[in-house]
Design a protein that fits this description.
heterodimer; A: 144 residues; alpha+beta; two-stranded antiparallel sheet; 2 strands; B: 617 residues; seven-stranded mixed sheet; five-stranded antiparallel sheet; 20 helices; 35% helix; globular
């Protein structure tokens, strides 16, 4: 056999090409002529061009829409940040106005002061008509 | 097969193709054998080899670098890279809010606006100065001169302004003038609970206190978090106060057990006592008796966390309640008596022979008055704070049982409170090289043993809560995004039996009754004073003392546990005249703030089924 004389390396080196035409390593190489475009191919090409143009238009439109939406998001985020900062500052003012040191100063300025004495009164109903027997305990709170 | 292509089949291995025969006129040109693979592909193989070699070289370089960083320089790199990564904290991220148990904010975020201008790009610097001066609170002429002096500068910082001016500048939308909003930590109560809160420095890191302990938690990791999804109903269901400050913008907030009203009154009383006694420093802690929730924790000297840099020394930042050790003195006798009562070694009526001096381990033990009190009961010995009797009890108890009790009460170990820089205390145990037999006797009355005020008050709280030791805590809930995590009281272990706790409480009430000017009519208070000499390098000096008083009330149904401590008071070296009045004042404040009726009246209310809110733990 012809192949029996070739080593596996030689067979690999002279393997059959994956195209029709050239059949043997020592045969002259030939190439088929370039075929002319058929009218169907021309129509296909023009159609493809139109499709690509349409895709481009859609892409540009969507990109523009995205850009506009992105700008709106940036604007809203900026507005949200501003409102959030405004809210934080208002809460800080609110908290500061409620601080105990400030409230005490205002209370003292208004003439108030801590209680010097504390009275506890227990009212216990003793009969059906609501007569009560108060018990009172008084002590000095001691806070000057 | 022949060369002209005309031949016979070779058996189907190759399909032959017919070609035109060569004409005779044309010179015969030997047909060149078709090369396979074609010659034109040879350069491609060369390029491939070049790319391959390049990749191999690149891979080798990577491998060498890998070995260099992972093996050769491995020892020094982790610290350096870790440090750089840890330092990469964004300064423009806000932090979560900290509120007290009633929902009032103790720390929150506000904004300051950093104004910068670019005089180089200004068309009319004079007009810009006229426009900006009122917003910045500066003189227009001076501002114009400043612009002119930096006419070539593209970046001229003009400092910080408030929200109104900052937003007005931002609304101008001028690229030559910018007002960058930067978050700033704001403590609306000023100095209140400064040691508990800590502070946030310019690098936006939290230091000391809660800011230090919860630094990573409070730091938001995104500048635009999702809007809060927690509702008021969620907060209500979790038992949190209804407040406009929760949840905050960043939704990583802390709700404390602290009561700012109690904290305010306690700090005020501490300041007044410091001024009266001329003490160098002081600490007051108020716990809820059941659960060891911290209601107030005050130390003096204090600082304003809004102006944390304005302190004479960084030591002012240190929270004395958890970070400074002291010898508790006679307050520690409560632990010795608790252990002895719990073991059945003594009863309140057990009699002791109190001699003038008791020698143990080669050390002489004296009473505070250096006198012998003769035959005394255990109750009398505790009320009179007799060192000799206490040392005798500790010796009878034995070193093993005594130090087991010390350990059970949590001394010599961290309490686990959620505050930065807590220290564990210093307890010498038998068997260690620094321990001597005499330490058993001296430790029994609080000498030669170092504790933190929080450890001491928590041990007293264990007596108040019928013998159960709880982990002290200051955070009642964590808010993180859409999650609320309540922190429940955490019992650690039972240190004594309920019977022992009640017996010891009765002995403590007796001790308070014998303290001059301390009892409050209508209220049974359990407590114990402590006066400890301060150990110096030359030994103990009796003119410098740390005075303290620890106790709880109402004695029959404890609500509050209080410890006060004063360092080196000048007017008196005794706790009965310095710490005890402060303790009494704090008790009065709590009675007033929580509207706690006298014991008899309270018991009547409870018997009638009227349970007041303050009775809830």
């Amino acid at each position: 056999m012809f192949t029996a004389r070739l080593s596996p390396t030689a067979i690999w080196r002279h393997r059959r090409p994956l195209r029709t035409g050239v059949v043997l390593p020592f045969a002259p190489r030939t190439y088929p002529d370039r075929p002319h475009l058929a009218w169907q191919q021309a129509v296909l090409g023009i159609g493809l061009l139109i499709l690509l143009t349409a895709c481009l238009c859609v892409y540009v439109y969507q990109a523009a829409q995205l850009n506009v939406a992105g700008q709106e998001i940036v604007g809203l985020r900026d507005q949200y940040g501003r409102l959030q900062r405004e809210n934080s500052n208002l809460l800080a003012i609110y908290a500061a106005e409620q601080s105990l040191a400030r409230m005490e100063l205002r209370a003292r300025a208004a003439g108030f002061g801590p209680a010097a004495e504390v009275h506890y009164v227990i009212v216990t109903p003793t009969d059906d008509v609501g007569t009560v027997t108060p018990q009172t305990i008084t002590f000095h709170a001691g806070q000057p | 097969m022949n060369r002209d292509g005309v031949g016979k089949s070779t058996g189907g291995f190759y399909r032959l193709r017919a070609v035109e025969p060569l004409s005779a006129a044309e010179p015969t040109r030997p047909a060149r054998e078709a090369e396979w693979p074609p010659r034109s592909e040879a350069p491609k193989a060369t390029r491939l080899q070049i790319v391959l070699v390049g990749l191999i070289v690149f891979g080798l370089v990577l491998a060498v670098q890998l070995v260099r960083y992972q093996v050769v320089a491995a020892r020094r790199l982790p610290a350096g890279t870790g440090g750089r990564v840890a330092d990469a904290v964004r300064v423009d991220l806000p932090r979560g809010t900290i509120v007290d148990r009633r929902g009032h904010p103790l720390a929150l975020e506000t904004y300051a606006y950093q104004v910068t201008v670019s005089p180089r790009d200004m068309v009319d610097r004079q007009a810009a100065a006229l426009h900006l001066a009122p917003l910045l609170g500066l003189d227009a002429g001076a501002l114009a001169r400043q612009f002119a002096a930096h006419a070539d500068s593209a970046y001229l910082p003009l400092g910080f302004v408030g929200p109104a001016a900052g937003e007005a500048i931002r609304a101008m939308r001028q690229y030559t003038v910018t007002a960058e909003p930067l978050p700033r930590r704001y403590y609306p109560e000023g100095r209140l609970a400064a040691h508990v809160l800590g502070f946030v420095a310019a690098d936006r890191r939290g230091y000391y206190g809660l800011e230090g302990y919860y630094d990573t938690f409070l730091r938001a990791d995104t500048p635009y978090p999702t809007p809060p999804v927690l509702t008021r109903a969620d907060l209500d269901a979790a038992g949190l106060p209804q407040t406009p400050f929760l949840p905050s913008y960043v939704q990583q907030d802390l709700v404390l057990t602290l009561d700012r009203h109690v904290q305010y009154r306690v700090e005020k009383a501490l300041r007044q006592t410091i001024a009266t006694t001329q003490a160098e420093s002081g600490t007051v802690i108020v716990l809820l008796a059941r659960g060891s929730a911290i209601l107030a924790m005050a130390s003096w000297p204090d600082f304003d966390p809004n102006r944390y840099a304005d302190v004479p020394s960084p030591n002012v930042y240190v929270n004395q309640a958890i970070s400074v050790l002291y010898e508790p003195g006679s307050v520690f006798k409560l632990i010795t008596y608790a252990a002895a009562l719990d073991r059945g070694l003594i009863t309140p009526e057990t009699r002791f022979q109190d001699t003038r001096v008791f020698v143990y381990g080669g050390k002489e033990i004296h009473n505070w008055d250096r006198k012998g009190h003769g035959t005394v009961t255990a109750t009398h010995a505790l009320a009179e704070s007799l060192n000799v009797t206490t040392a005798q009890i500790a010796v009878a108890l034995g070193r093993t049982e005594f130090y087991k009790a010390v350990q059970r009460f949590g001394f010599g170990q961290l309490t686990g409170v959620e505050l930065a820089n807590e220290v564990p205390g210093l307890v010498k145990y038998p068997g260690r090289s620094a321990w001597y037999p005499a330490d058993l006797a001296t430790n029994s009355f609080g000498q030669g043993i170092s504790v933190t005020p929080l450890q001491m008050v928590n041990a007293v709280a264990a007596i108040a809560s019928e013998g159960v030791l709880y982990r002290p805590h200051i955070v009642s809930a964590l808010i993180q995004q859409d999650r609320i995590t309540p922190i429940a009281p955490q019992p650690l272990n039972r240190v004594i039996t309920p019977d022992t706790a009640r017996t010891l409480t009765a002995m403590m009430v007796e001790a308070v009754e014998r303290t001059p000017d301390l009892p409050i009519p209508g209220y049974a208070i359990a407590g114990k004073s402590g006066t400890a000499e301060i150990p110096l390098p030359d030994g103990y000096v009796d003119q410098y003392t740390i005075t303290s008083f620890a106790g709880f009330f109402p004695a029959d149904d404890p609500l509050f546990v209080i410890l006060v401590k004063l360092d080196r008071p000048k007017t008196s070296t005794w706790a009965a005249y310095t710490a005890a009045p402060l303790f009494r004042q704090v008790v009065l404040d709590l009675i007033e703030l929580y509207a706690i009726p006298p014991d008899r009246m309270r018991r009547q209310l409870q018997a009638g089924g009227l349970v007041q809110p303050w009775l809830a733990p």
